[in-house]
Amino acid sequence: MSPPHSPGLLRRLSGVPADAPLLVPAAVIGLTAVGLVAAFCFAAGWIGPERLGPKRIINTFNANFGEHPGFRRNHAKGVCVDGYFDGNGNAVGLSVASVFGQNRTPVTGRFAIPGGNPAAPDAGGPVRSLALLFQLPDGQQWRTGMNNTPVFVVNTPQGFYAQLLATAPDPKTGKPDPAKVAAFFAAHPESAAFRSWVKTHAPSSGFANGSYYSINAFKLIDGHGGERYVRWTFVPDTPYQPLDATQKHPADFLQADLQTQLAQGPLLWHLQLTLADTDDITNDATRAWPEGRQVIDAGTLTLISAAPQQGGDCRDINYDPTILPHGIAISDDPLLAARSAAYSRSFNKRTAEEAAQGARS
Amino acid sequence: MKEAIYFARPLRWLHWLMAPLMVLMLFIGVFMVSTVSTWHNRLVGVHKPLGMALLVLVVVRLVVRWLNTTPRLPSTLPRWQQALAHGSHWLLYGLMLLMPLIGWGMQSAAGYPVVLGGWVLPALVPHDVALYATLCMAHGLLALVLFATVVAHLAAALFHGLVRRDGVLQSMTGQARRGRS
Questions:
Q1: Which is more confidently placed, A361 or A114?
Q2: Interface test with chain B among A316, A343, A346, by most B beta carbons within 10 Å
Q3: Where are the bilayer-spanning segments (chain A) (predicted)?
């Protein structure tokens, strides 16, 4: 065997003593480094089996609705509202959250319609949403994102992703392919409850006279650590009127009507806490709890003003429903973590776009 | 001044306590943002308090390091490796300090309350989404730099321990020196 060309120089430059072993240590060091990097890439999801992550969900929203820089990827069209919540003390025995005491908590909210198109017509679908941020005096917050339907279409993040794929617009018609949508409903029988509810409950004529439901279950925690599963509903004082489907509505009628109503005076909702019985299912947003559950009126939400979301107080808020004060906690509903992860991704993208737009202007 | 052979005992403890926690933290960080499973919330719930704990530990560590003499690198080590060693160590300290501060700052800039145990921590910076966008990007990019530096640091430690056998690895493990000195 011939000796290597200039062992002395290479070893001297790399600080390797002349008699030091090389092959085995090099293998140990190399395998350690490569193994660690590979494990890291695996943890991040860059290699290995495809996993359902926020990136894929948010990218699919972009694919379905187009790019709308600076806007939320879902519920992109909305309006900011401001007001306060007056607790009445009825729920203090159930939760230590200060919002339930006999006091006033400032609220920053947002009404919206689903979908990633910020210019969608308001009458395009039956679903509306109300998101609220309660700013508690000690710096804690309660954030909630609610819909005007008590149940959700699906009960898993995978189901939600399947629905997104199935409702992608057909390039030929610009509308979802009915066959794909039908196939999705057939493959997801849990969606039947949502569909039948929407069929039998016409949406309200405006944002102001709609009820808004927490959809997911949560937990209330009392001063002794006792837990009760809960769903909440904001029930309007303004009487419900079904939307007149025979009439043609302007594209922004929900926002315009809200502005008109608020100009006449504040709008009120009652917070109703529905407590689960011990056997009620808490991890399935497609299943409502049976009638007859204990309901507690915990206080009144008063909204006093509205403002366009561009420049409004709600624009820079991520209504992540897992941001909760002490006394309220997430349940075992798998949609909650998915909402948190996906909302966060949407927030990261739109704030980066907003910052870039700000830098350009 | 007495020549130090080993890092002071508290520094060695802090090093071996923080090293696995930091690696865990980096893995948790990249994993938690990649999934919509319930691991997301569970791990975010670990990431934040663990980051705060690491912030406290690195401050203690910097103080302890300031108060103690540290072993010198062997004079036989090539100049470029000495420079790399010093540079990478200050990069590690800097990132160990910056990462939790940026993490805390980005939470504040996003308007999220930073709650630790029963306490609401003060916001480091005001609610400002443009600032949030910058901090968020920095947190992600610096995490990759930190991970790369940690891997390089580990490889260099093994190089000292397995190839050069010059006592540099032992200065942190506290083991008696074997072989050449």
A1: A114
A2: A316
A3: 20-47
Task: Indicate whether this model's pTM tops 0.90.
Answer: yes
Active-site positions of A? 75
B177: pLDDT confidence band, cut at 50, 70 and 90? low
pLDDT digits (tens, 9 = 90+) for A212-250: 999 999 999 999 999 999 999 999 999 999 999 888 999
- pLDDT number for residue A12: 85
**Fold adopted by B9-165:** Fumarate Reductase Cytochrome B subunit (1.20.950)
Domains of chain A (ranges; CATH) run: 76-360 (2.40.180.10)
A54-65 helix and A334-360 helix, angle to the nearest 10 degrees: 60
Crossing angle for the helix pair A334-360 and B129-158, to the nearest 10 degrees:
110
Q: Is A84 annotated as a binding residue?
A: no
Which pairs with CB-CB distance under 8 Å and at least 24 residues apart come from A348-351? A348/B133, A348/B136, A349/A58, A349/A73, A350/A69, A350/A70, A350/A71, A350/A72, A350/A73, A351/A316, A351/B110, A351/B129, A351/B130, A351/B132, A351/B133, A351/B136
Cβ-defined contact of B112 to A29 (cutoff 8 Å) = no
Question: How many beta-carbon contacts under 8 Å exist across A and B?
Answer: 141
Q: What is d(CA A211, CA A218) in angstroms, rounded to the nearest whole number?
A: 18
CB contact under 8 A, B129 and A316: yes
Show residues of chain A in contact with B33, CB under 8 Å. Answer: 53-54, 341, 344-345
**Type of residue found at B66:** W
Tell me the pLDDT tens digit for each residue of A266-307.
Answer: 999 999 999 999 999 999 999 999 999 999 999 999 999 999
> Which residue has 């008699």 as its token pair?
A19
pLDDT at A361: 61
Q: What number is the ipTM of this complex?
A: 0.95
Choose the weakest-confidence range: A84-93, A238-247, B101-110: A238-247
Residue B67 to chain A, least CA–CA distance (Å): 31
DSSP string, A195-208: HHHHHHSPPBSSST
**Best residue in B163, B168, B169 for a mutation probing chain A (most A CBs within 10 Å):** B163
Residues of chain B found within 8 Å of residue A21, distances taken between Cβ atoms: 162-163
User: Helix, strand, coil shares of chain A as percentages rounded to 5?
Assistant: 35, 20, 45
Domain range list for chain B: 9-165
| B60-95 per-position pLDDT tens digit | 999 999 999 999 999 999 999 999 999 999 999 999
